[in-house]
Amino acid sequence: MRLTLLFCLAVMLLAPADAAHAGSGNVAAGEKLARQWCAACHVVAEAQDRAATIGVPSFFDIAANPDMSEAKIATFLADPHPRMPDMGLSNLEIRDLATYIGSLRR
Ligand code: HEC
User: Fold this and answer.
1) pLDDT in tens, 24-75
2) In total, how many domains does the chain have?
3) Which residue in 29, 51, 71, 89 has the most C-beta neighbors within 10 A?
4) Range of the domain at 51
């Protein structure tokens, strides 16, 4: 967990333009976390080698839902739904994930 945190900090320091562009969190760090922790159940990106679970909303569905703002996603992740495991995400990871999901909105 500490390594992930260091990675996120490094990414933010090395890519300030990217972080500024993406709102509050870091899109690249969020995508990495999503592929690592969320791809077992959710479709998290266009190119994904692992099959996601049927009946679980894809990150594109979540991004397209006008009720799911980045703030709402962050709140959800801080206190996950019973059907979803509590992954003990840090605030920084939650922010990056919410920003990444928000970046999938089109
Ligand atoms: C073990 C499977 C599993 C994993 C791993 C998982 N999820 Fe989920 N997630 C679910 C299920 C099932 C739901 C639907 C909950 C419901 O509505 O009953 C859900 C719902 C959500 C929602 C709410 C969607 C909505 O419209 O209400 C968000 C946001 C979300 N997941 C984000 C994530 C993120 C980010 C990760 C990785 C850190 C993740 N999930 C990892 C199973 C999972």
Assistant:
1) 899 999 999 999 999 988 999 988 866 677 788 999 999 999 999 999 999 9
2) 1
3) 29
4) 2-103
Phi/psi of residue 14, nearest 5 degrees? -80, -25
Please give the number of the atom of ligand 1 that sits closest to the Cα of 89: 38
Write the CATH number for 91. 1.10.760
CB-side exposure of 64: number of CA atoms within 13 Å? 6
Output the pTM of the full model: 0.77
Question: Which protein residue's CA is at the shortest distance from atom 28 of ligand 1?
Answer: 73
> How far, in Å, from the CA of 36 to the mean position of ligand 1?
14
pLDDT at 16 over 70: no
Report which ligand 1 atom has the smallest distance to the Cα of 55.
Answer: 12
Q: Which of 91, 77, 90, 92 is nearest to 38 (CA)?
A: 77
